[in-house]
User: Which sequence fits this backbone?
């Protein structure tokens, strides 16, 4: 084969090559080499470590401008999860996506340099949250039927303000009471992907106390206290009594 018949110098081949280059230039893009697996991992690692919130596979896919599909993103995430398995920080999949978090066993050490105290929840709040979580969707009346006592508005409001509970509709009964259910944020804070992964009921309180970001949630969602002549002790379900410490 002489130089005139080589594919690189064939007139038809040259026209196609020039055409491809023209399209690339017109679109403003520059051809880049295929990404190595190690580079994909490092990009995912950087994005997840720098994000304050979980990231979905679709969000992570946008990092690569279409070069990596969703299935391969998931495969790389699984590999990355394995690489971090023996470290104090782990990669986990939760309801809202993927994120890094400190393993619960190391949290007690970090608490020593935190100026915030872990929140403690009253029995009323924990019971209300548990009923919603394990029996949802429920109305306030349903909760009261199970607890056997009235549920004060501040108790439900505290859970809504924390982003753990939301109103998902109204029941078609007289008065059309609001229907409550837990949120993805509730699952995220418990490091869960779905309601099927909820811990046994008697372990819920311990799980909440070990959950990441509860201190930040407490500070961000604590309602401002209105001036009052009393200290709120007369109402055991008041927002001020919802959590102590």
Assistant:
């Amino acid at each position: 084969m002489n130089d005139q018949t080589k594919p690189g110098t064939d007139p038809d081949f040259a026209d196609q090559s020039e055409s491809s280059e023209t399209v690339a230039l017109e679109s403003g893009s520059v051809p880049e080499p295929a990404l190595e697996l190690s580079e994909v991992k490092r990009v995912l690692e950087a994005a997840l470590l720098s994000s304050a919130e979980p990231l979905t596979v679709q969000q992570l896919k946008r990092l690569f401008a279409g070069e990596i599909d969703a299935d391969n993103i998931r495969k790389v995430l699984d590999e990355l999860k394995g690489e971090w398995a023996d470290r104090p920080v782990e990669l986990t999949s939760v309801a809202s996506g993927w994120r890094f978090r400190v393993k619960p066993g190391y949290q007690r050490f970090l608490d020593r340099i935190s100026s915030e105290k872990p929140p403690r929840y009253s029995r009323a709040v924990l019971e209300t949250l548990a009923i919603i979580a394990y029996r949802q969707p429920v109305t306030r009346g349903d909760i009261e039927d199970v607890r056997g006592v009235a549920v004060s508005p501040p108790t439900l409001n505290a859970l809504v303000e924390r982003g753990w509970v939301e109103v998902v509709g109204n029941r078609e009964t007289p008065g059309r009471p609001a229907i409550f259910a837990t949120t993805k944020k509730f699952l995220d804070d418990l490091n869960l992907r779905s309601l099927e992964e909820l811990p046994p009921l008697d372990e819920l309180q311990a799980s909440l106390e070990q959950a990441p970001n509860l201190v930040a949630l407490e500070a961000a969602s604590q309602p401002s206290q209105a001036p009052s002549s009393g200290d709120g002790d007369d109402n055991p379900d008041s927002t001020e009594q919802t959590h102590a410490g």
